[in-house]
Fold this sequence. Notes:
The complex is a heterodimer of chains A (about 625) and B (about 475).
Chain A (H helix, E strand, L loop, with lengths): L1 E2 L2 E4 L3 H12 L4 E5 L13 E3 L3 H11 L3 H8 E7 L9 E6 L3 H11 L4 E5 L2 E8 L7 E8 L4 E3 L3 E3 L8 E4 L2 E4 L10 H8 L5 E7 L2 E3 L9 E3 L22 E5 L2 H9 L5 H4 L13 H7 L7 E6 L6 E5 L7 H10 L8 E3 L2 E7 L14 E2 L1 E3 L9 H20 L12 H11 L24 H12 L4 H23 L1 E2 L2 E2 H4 L7 H7 L10 H32 L16 H10 L4 H6 L5 H15 L14
Parallel strand pairs in A: 1-10, 2-3, 2-11, 3-7, 9-22, 11-23
Antiparallel strand pairs in A: 4-6, 5-6, 8-9, 9-10, 12-13, 12-21, 14-21, 15-19, 15-20, 16-17, 17-18, 18-19, 24-25
Chain B lengths: L8 E5 L7 E7 L3 H8 L4 H5 L4 E11 L2 E10 L10 E7 L2 H13 L3 E2 L4 H8 L8 H22 L3 H25 L10 H27 L5 E5 L6 H9 L5 E4 L6 E9 L2 E7 L7 H13 L7 E7 L8 H12 L4 E7 L6 H16 L8 E3 L8 H11 L13 H24 L9 H19 L4 H11 L5
Parallel strand pairs in B: 1-6, 7-10, 7-11, 11-12, 12-13
Antiparallel strand pairs in B: 1-2, 2-5, 3-4, 4-5, 8-9, 9-10
Helix pairs in contact in B: 4-5, 6-7, 6-14, 6-15, 7-13, 13-14
Amino acid sequence: xxxxxxxxxxxxxxxxxxxxxxxxxxxxxxxxxMERDAIARLSCNPAIGGLxxxxxxxxxxxxxxxxxxxxxxxxxxxxxxxRSKGHAVQAPRAQADRNLYPAAVQDLLARDPRIEIIxxxxxxxxxxxxxxxxxxxxxxxxxxxxxxxxxTSAVILTTGTFLRGLMHRGSEQSVGGRIGEASSEGMSxxxxxxxFELGRLKTGTPPRVHRDTIDYDACTIxxxxxxxxxxxxxxxxxxxxxxxxWITYTNAAAHDLIRANLxxxxxxxxxxxxxxxxxxxxxxxxxxRFADKSRHQVFLEPEGYDxxxxxxxxxxxxxxxxxxxxxxxxxxxLERARIVQYGYAVEYDFVPTEQTKPSLESKPVGGLFLAGxxxxxxxxxxxxxxxxxxGVNAVHALGxxxxxxxxxxxxxxxxxxxDLVTRPPTEPYRMFTSRxxxxxxxxxxxxxxxxxxxxRRIGLVDDARWQRFxxxxxxxxxxxxxxxxxxxxxxxxxxxxxxxxxNPESLAAAIGNSVGPTFAQxxxxxxxxxxxxxxxxxxxxxxxxRFRRLETMPxxxxxxxxxxxxxxxxxxxxxARVTPHTLGQAGRIAGVxxxxxxxxxxxxxxxxGRGDRTGSTAQGCS
Amino acid sequence: MLDRIDKTIVALSSAAGxxxxxxxxxxxxxxxxxxxxxxxxxxxRLTDVAGFRRVSTTIEPEENLHLPAAIFVFRAPRSYTRQDxxxxxxxxxxxxxxxxxxxxxxxxxxxxQAGEFTARAFVNGAMDLASAxxxxxxxxxxxxxxxxxxxTMMDGGxxxxxxxxxxxxxxxxxxxEADIDFSEEPIDFIKPSELRAQIGDVVGRIxxxxxxxxxxxxxxxxxxxxxxxxxxxxxSSLLNRLSGTSRAICAAAAGTTRDxxxxxxxxxxGEALLLxxxxxxxxxxxxxxxxxxxxxxxxxxxxxxxxxxxxxxxxGDGASIARFLAVIESLESVAAVVAANKCDLLSADEERRAxxxxxxxxxxxxxxxxxxxxxxxxxxxxxxxxxxxxxxSLVDLADTTGGESILLAERQRTAITEARxxxxxxxxxxxxxxxxxxxxxxxxxxxxxxxxxxxxVTGEVTTDDLLARVFARFCIGK
Lengths: 622, 478
């Protein structure tokens, strides 16, 4: 028997980030994974970031997490997306080397002596029953296959697609969470026996082809940015060699082949019953649902400098191998391509998030935290963001500290977790910028300004990051002071710099300087962005202020909604199921109306005693 | 309403049963300052009060509209809501009251929502704990009443118009969002020129809608009962009797061409506005012409005609009585009730014969007159019966307990106007863009704001809805 403060089960992106965060906060942490070398493996698309997701990576980095640092080390093609559409919706994306990325994460984890990596499979959760209010059970430890028992008061489950993972390729089915890896069969039963309800989701992946079998002349080149922009606020530049990606298209012949073989597609034979994501449909889905489209785009993305595999982004499929061979052979540039890994769909169990608190602690079992795909999300970045929060909150729970709950106005991570707990997903949840109503505040460029102070306060941000943050913060303040004082062309620089022609160089000149060590390019650029969004930021701040009262009014966990007769029956049921933690969350639950929120507010006020009779009979009551 | 307890709110407060007076009520930190703006000459007398004061003065909510008013000041915490409160008691004309309320809003007050005064009273501790359930019930009931009122108001083109606009905007913003969130897809979601044209089209439709909705906004949502009848039949006396006062107030109603005597009256659980067609100098011809005009003109909507006849005059040839009964026959679209007044001057037998006479005159027509009542404005005889008959005849008499449902109209107008303003800014942001809009994020913000404002009229559109629109129409996903 070995004792740990925090035990993380699963070594994916949620697990790695959770272990890192917990250890940073001083916890003696175990990371249990089936295979040490598989930690932080990129099991699907070898890319990090993208719209909505890139913002999450910046936030993880600003808080002191792993993902941005690892991506900057392992990225082989960096691009900032939406450069032409406004800073609030711009996001970094990078192709990552499939081998270098996990290596970078494993290297960072290895540097923290508080993290012990244990190879194995968790078979049982050790819990004790509790009576009275609060969760029915409390976690006490985990038992691994083979009998090793770890005692702990905080467990973070990050099982990814491994909970009763079932892979499909045509009629061929195999048990496992990823190609060549086992599944975790017992944990679903363990969770059920503790009172959890489980749901089932589906996701898929496309075939990979051998890089030497592609006719690149038949494809369109897609280069990265000339000047790669790092993900991490710790890095000024990306120096490693960059590679290019390629674009080709499917065609009518390929579509005909798919149509002719639909009877062999698990999605259409009924072999797969669970829900896949609408934003990431399989090629057979696309051909069926958008029959009028004569072609679909395929990105050919190298999986690494030395990796033979090229990821065919856009033709995710669970059709049988021979059909996959046929489809690929129809595609321009891939006529002679050899598939080195066939596409497949995978079904897996998840825990619908009515059962999860905003801290990511589960409701039925105290001390048991859930992060990543087990919460119904999709994507490395979404998983990592939850992992970080779960890691922090596991440690906070041990010390009796209040959980870290980021607001919808503070971070995409906050938007995501709030979405999960108020509107439990029915398809794998992916971040989009349009999910963030305060998007203009939550930019990728200002993630450090928003979150690094929070990361510092909770102990995730080390001295080096904090010093860098302070230097940048002070530099921006100094430039802004100069802008307010200086004039150009008869107007204040702070007014002039909102014009389209303002750029870092002209701004430096306008305040009588030039770009250099004192006035760094990125700091000048930041001042310009801040100025551009200033008016909108204050409008969004007004919106936030209007909701502040709701967001800060807590709902006691033991409130009996069924005992409030003025609530509509539907509202009572929804509220009882989701058990919102604040009045703001209650208002976001589907089926709860503003009038219901008002009624709830009256009852909460009554409970908290603010409605006590404190004076004489009111006057003016007509 | 929970998110703005520190703001000042304003509402019309019903003065039913207390004569033709109306009350505009404010609660919140700026209540005194806002009312002070309207009565500069007496401002100090408001602010130097510690507890309670009544100030008689004149207020000027609009230029050249001078209204006699009694201002009641209740300083916090000695008020219903435990906040600073002011009540402006002034003439009961809905137009005058609306002018006062609009002025308060222009000066920074927010239109109160259903139950908001009560809710403030509750949260500030002015109410007994035991009343919490009652408060919650009131909020629910008033929300329901507002919903009913909203539905009634929006039965016509406004509801369809708003819903069409929301559909168009939701589709548009879905395209803008798709263009942002799925920019890696090889899909042209929408061209800037197309976007500008479509937003411009929506702005045009909003303008049309606002123009067409003015009459609805300007007027009270209370049902309107028009009193008609020959001179000296006792219309004004009846108005006074029904509204419980000895004096009718005459006010020039904006949007109408003539003075109308008005008074709110209590009918069962609801209220109605009683309108008297004219002063004593009018001739029969003029009264009939006016009644016809008011009954047929949408802007001066009349829900019920109450024909007031002199029951003692029926002994003669009854020519003028026949004329008025002919009026209601010709105005088929409006329900009617007949009140045979001055029955205190008749014996029981004479009264019965008078009613029979009226009924026989009416029976020649196809028209369904709800009832004929014998009343006496002087003694009050038959008045409660008449009240019940009037209430029964008003199909849409909503429960307006609390008197705040009128605000929905104002909120709708404000919301629609703000939506239009946001769209105007969106067009500016898209100006000149050819291939892409370099501030698509800001543009989406403005369109969403417009959608939110319209959503506050008829319900919200969530991000999930928007994403569903995108996924339904486009092949998304690499």
